[in-house]
Amino acid sequence: MLDILANANIAGELLQRTSSTVRVQQIVELSLTPAFLLAGIGAIMNVMMSRLIWIAERIERLDVKMRDNPGMETPQELARLCHRRQLAQRAVMFSTAAALTICVVIALLFISAFINTQIGTVIAAAWITSMAFLITGLVHFALETVMAASGQKKAAKRDS
User: Fold this and answer.
1) How far is residue 101's CA from residue 137's CA, in Å, rounded to a whole number?
2) Would you tell me how many other CB atoms lie within 10 Å of the CB of residue 110?
3) What's the pLDDT tens digit per position in 7-35?
4) Contacts for 30-36 with beta carbons within 8 Å, 24 or more apart?
5) What distance in Å separates the CA atoms of residue 101 and residue 41, rounded to the nearest whole number?
6) What whole-number distance in Å separates Cα of residue 60 and Cα of residue 70?
7) Across residues 63-71, what is the average pLDDT?
8) Would you state the pLDDT for residue 27?
């Protein structure tokens, strides 16, 4: 394999393009912003997952309660919780897609150092796609939190 690379002068060309410390340093600097965004998405997803787990456990408790009392009416809360779970799941899925797309952006930045072909448009498209996924995930997360808050207001009015 190395013979093929050496004969085709591919290895030498790759080393020449990336041997410059300055060039590699520039690529690392360019990849820092997406990497920090990736860390931020991870923190947000941690909160999203905590909410999703709480919702799933609450639905499970209501299901057990209804199984133990066969004549019991389905609580109104169950429909709201199922809708909230759907919103939270979508928020997590879109945020995960954003994180994966950001990983593609970082990989493309490093690949661009090894090839002559200009892939700036591909990198920009991947970045825009990741932002669209992130915005969509955050909108779903915001909708879930608004729905949770409105449910608490309705419960407080019923109790008073």
Assistant:
1) 13
2) 14
3) 556 556 656 665 667 777 788 888 888 99
4) 30/109, 31/106, 31/109, 31/110, 34/102, 34/105, 34/106, 34/109, 34/127, 34/130, 35/106
5) 12
6) 15
7) 87
8) 81
Tokens describing residue 123: 């990198």
How many angstroms separate the CA atoms of 144 and 23, rounded?
44
* Number of neighbours of residue 117 by Cβ within 10 angstroms: 7
Give how far Cα 43 sits from Cα of 15, 54, 130, Å: 37, 17, 16
Confidence of residue 158 (pLDDT cuts 50, 70, 90): low
CA 72 from chain centre, in angstroms, equals 39
Convert the pLDDT of each residue in 89-102 to its tens digit.
Answer: 999 999 999 999 99
Q: Measured between alpha carbons, how far is 120 from 126 in angstroms, rounded to an integer?
A: 10
Residue bearing tokens 């709480």:
54
Cα–Cα dist 54/33, whole Å: 32
Q: Is the pTM of this model over 0.90?
A: no
